[in-house]
């Protein structure tokens, strides 16, 4: 893999080792076409094939599947003349580091999670020694930048604009993986403690994961099974938002929260934990409904406030939408990301 600096359009490769289409892959699928619009040649490696192709459809972005470290390295060998290899998550970082030994491409790592790389001390030490391979690092929030223990440039994630929904359906929507760190159990306990279901509201949970059966048992034990719907994995979460009345985001250490940004874009009122990236997104909105992490009663109280008055929800949602359009656009994200790339190439 060689550089294209002297042979036409500059070329960036976005690399993940993934067969999923979750937050990181959606991030890539939104950013890559906008970079292509800026005149860059863009290749995306990794991510669930059909959702990624659908999301990239209509753009000039090339897609290659790669589920594992090995397949990512093989895909990189099929790519020529890359100026920038932008890696996402640790396995992709490792694949990029290995490829950089035989390449003059500049390696840029986007940090999506608020933690150092690697779960064990030896892995963290190995990444620390290899850090010099990265020409630059990008953090998706100030929260992430302050948690990784390494220098980085903060570039907030952006989302595409959307029309405001009617906010008339009595649905509280959640969208996240059903894993322990996501605090879905806090959300269900808060739902049980709130009065929303007495007013005819339902809690809809989009997502799947290892905690699903336990969470279903929790809903039954708390007596709210009839008002909680588990929707399973959803390829297009944004399509659910126009019908919802409130969006609930309980995760305490969210790097930024792409689904929260998409809710803001749809003018959907958000109730969220007052921590992590939420403080930079919905927390920047006047009158934001934020509760302390793991505070079940606090979350329940804010849910009750949110569902109580349709006009208040409408005004709050429009303030959130205005904040998204001013500060969290894909256009601004693409411009800032390309500025990081240009700094590596200069």
Automatic annotation (TrEMBL):
Keyword Protein biosynthesis recorded: no
Gene3D superfamilies: Glycogen Phosphorylase B (3.40.50.2000)
Domain named Glycosyl transferase family: residues: 169-321
SUPFAM superfamilies: UDP-Glycosyltransferase/glycogen phosphorylase
Residue ranges annotated for the Glycosyltransferase subfamily 4-like N-terminal domain, each copy included: 23-159
GO molecular function, one term: glycosyltransferase activity
PANTHER family, alphabetized: COLANIC ACID BIOSYNTHESIS GLYCOSYLTRANSFERASE WCAL-RELATED, GLYCOSYLTRANSFERASE
Family as reported in the entry's similarity comment: Belongs to the glycosyltransferase group 1 family. Glycosyltransferase 4 subfamily.
Entry protein name: Glycosyltransferase involved in cell wall biosynthesis
């Amino acid at each position: 893999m060689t550089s294209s600096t002297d042979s036409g359009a500059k070329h960036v490769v976005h690399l993940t080792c993934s067969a999923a289409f979750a937050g990181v892959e959606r991030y890539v699928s939104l950013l890559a076409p906008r970079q292509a619009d800026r005149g860059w040649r863009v290749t995306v490696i990794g991510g669930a094939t059909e959702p990624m192709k659908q999301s990239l459809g209509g753009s000039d972005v090339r897609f290659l599947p790669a589920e594992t470290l090995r397949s990512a390295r093989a895909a990189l060998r099929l790519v020529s003349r890359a100026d920038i290899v932008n890696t996402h998550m640790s396995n992709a970082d490792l694949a990029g580091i290995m490829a950089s030994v035989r390449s003059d491409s500049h390696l840029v790592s986007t940090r999506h999670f608020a933690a150092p790389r690697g779960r064990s001390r030896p892995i963290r030490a190995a990444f620390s020694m290899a850090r010099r391979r990265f020409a630059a690092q990008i953090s998706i929030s100030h929260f992430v930048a302050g948690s990784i223990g390494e220098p980085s440039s903060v570039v907030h994630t952006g989302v595409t604009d959307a029309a405001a929904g009617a906010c008339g359906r009595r649905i509280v929507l959640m969208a996240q993986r059903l894993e322990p760190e996501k605090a879905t159990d806090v959300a269900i306990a808060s739902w049980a403690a709130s009065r929303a279901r007495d007013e005819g509201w339902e809690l809809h949970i989009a997502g799947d994961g290892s905690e699903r059966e336990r969470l279903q048992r929790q809903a039954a034990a708390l007596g709210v099974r009839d008002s909680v719907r588990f929707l399973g994995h959803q390829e297009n979460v944004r399509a659910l938002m126009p019908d919802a009345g409130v969006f609930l985001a309980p995760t305490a250490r969210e790097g930024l929260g792409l689904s929260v940004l998409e809710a803001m874009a749809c003018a959907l009122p958000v109730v969220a934990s007052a921590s992590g990236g939420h403080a930079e997104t919905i927390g920047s909105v006047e009158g934001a409904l934020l509760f302390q992490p793991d505070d079940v009663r606090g979350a329940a109280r804010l849910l009750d406030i949110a569902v109580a008055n349709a006009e208040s929800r409408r005004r709050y949602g429009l303030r959130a939408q205005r904040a998204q359009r001013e500060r969290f656009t894909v256009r601004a994200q693409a411009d800032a990301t390309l500025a990081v790339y240009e700094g590596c190439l200069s």
